[in-house]
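Aim 2 progress update. The chain analyzed this quarter is reproduced below.
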Amino acid sequence: MARLYYPLLAVVLFWVFCLNSDAAFPGLPVNPGAPAVTIHYNLEQQGYAQTAAGTVETKFGLPRGYLQQVYGYDPDQLDAWRHHINSQSSRFIVVNEVFPDTPLVLSPSNRSLLFLQVLDSGDVVPMGYAVLPVGVPPGHTKDLFQTIQEAATMSRRQLVTEYKLRRLTAAIF
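Predicted structure tokens:
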């Protein structure tokens, strides 16, 4: 019996001290899988921003993939989003054909184009943004940022009134 007990004990101790992930990586937090939630969220937001960028490319007759620098919403940017949306000088373009029940709203800002989604509840959800390349796109006669600024004629007040907006809703991690 002892002959079987000692090798079994040795295998169990070897597993506990050498193969157990907590023992092998003592610097990891107790639940090393938790960051996967944040990674999933970031990928989801990137997907929303890419979808919105594709819609902008179609709406403005841009080649597919013209908007290269597209970023999903990051909770660290909440104050900047809130400041832009609440600014009386911000202008908006509403694109209704993107998401059937919830229109996409575009807003130019410092050579960037912000993507917002308006929900039926009156909440505005940030989706991400794209940095607009400098220069005239193929098949166009003027800079894309200038084109979008000219198209963005809706004021904040008009946007709030027309869509009965109540608040900016954004995830905060």
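Residues 34-168 form one domain. The first strand starts at residue 69 and ends at 72. These observations will guide the mutagenesis experiments scheduled for the next reporting period.
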